[in-house]
Specification:
The protein has 273 residues and is α/β, with parallel strands linked by helices. The protein contains 7 helices and 7 strands. The protein has one domain. It is 30% helix and 15% strand.
Length: 273
């Protein structure tokens, strides 16, 4: 693992036009995105983002072709490694035990808000990456959502980050760029809350003078289908107890199902879960 020191100059420039100037507290770390997808009869609609009302977050509609592709990618992904020692320990635990990874995050709930665009996939993937950064390097840092929004497919057009994406999209992006920056960099804080068809800020205007180099980015599936419920639950617990975040994707059939979900999510107490 190579550590880039504060005064070590890699390239000139403070923004993406000149790439990296000085890389502060920058180290290599690897990252595996563990996937957990729940498909509940996704409707055959084109890939687009729709907000049911001003009080609702957007829903990403995907076509049957896109659904089939994502299923294929998920099923062909390598399986997440189950730690046998953790498995034994979990089997001895009594019911009622709890476990949380929130201590690995710089976590202010009201600021983790995507607004009215379809970049939930960026938030989920970045959260998992923040956990990995803390677990591997002991660094607690809020990482930039805006950096990917502004850079992914040039931050505009039908395929910009705000029009939806998947765990594979996130992993492929960072496996290619191999660099993640802090939320605190100039213009790297989240600005796309109300964006419509493009990122609110150009990638050229986001400072990349501070960040972290990624050695590798990959994704793996957590096997929860065609296995018993107890086995599926145990697999999820095993990954979490390895201090790894899980990218959870949830799909419903149609607008009526989503309206019911929104009613539950907005009005029911936490005790109903």
């Amino acid at each position: 693992m190579r550590i880039f020191h504060k005064d070590e100059v890699l390239h000139s420039g403070n923004t993406r036009n000149g790439m990296f100037n000085k890389i502060f507290h920058n180290r290599l770390f690897s990252f595996v995105l563990c996937l957990l997808f729940i498909f509940i009869s996704v409707s055959a609609m084109p890939l687009n983002i729709e907000a049911a009302s001003v009080n609702n977050y957007p829903v990403m509609h995907i076509s049957q072709q896109e659904k089939a592709l994502q299923n294929e990618l998920f099923l062909s992904a390598p399986k997440a490694v189950i730690d046998r020692q953790i498995q034994k320990e979990l089997q001895s635990f009594q019911s009622g035990n709890s476990f949380s990874l929130l201590s690995h995050l710089y976590y202010i709930p009201e600021e983790r808000d995507q607004g009215y665009i379809g970049n939930c996939w960026v938030w989920a993937g970045t959260g998992c990456m923040e956990i990995a950064l803390n677990v591997q390097l002991g660094i607690t840092d809020r990482l930039s959502i805006q950096y990917l929004d502004s850079l992914y497919n040039n931050g505009e057009g039908d395929d910009w980050a705000g029009n939806g994406g998947f765990a594979s999209s996130f992993a492929d992006f960072y496996d290619e760029h191999q660099f993640i920056i802090s939320w605190d960099n100039i213009n790297a804080y989240y600005q796309d809350y109300n964006s419509v068809d493009r990122a609110a800020v150009s990638a050229d205007n986001i400072a990349t003078n501070s960040g972290y180099l990624l050695e590798s980015v990959d994704y793996a599936q957590i096997r929860t289908h065609r296995v018993g419920e107890d086995s599926a639950i145990m697999a999820i617990k095993n990954i979490l107890n390895q201090n790894m975040g899980i990218f959870f994707a949830f799909y419903l059939t149609d607008d009526e199902d989503w309206r019911q979900f929104y009613d539950f999510w907005k009005y029911e107490p936490e005790s109903s879960v």
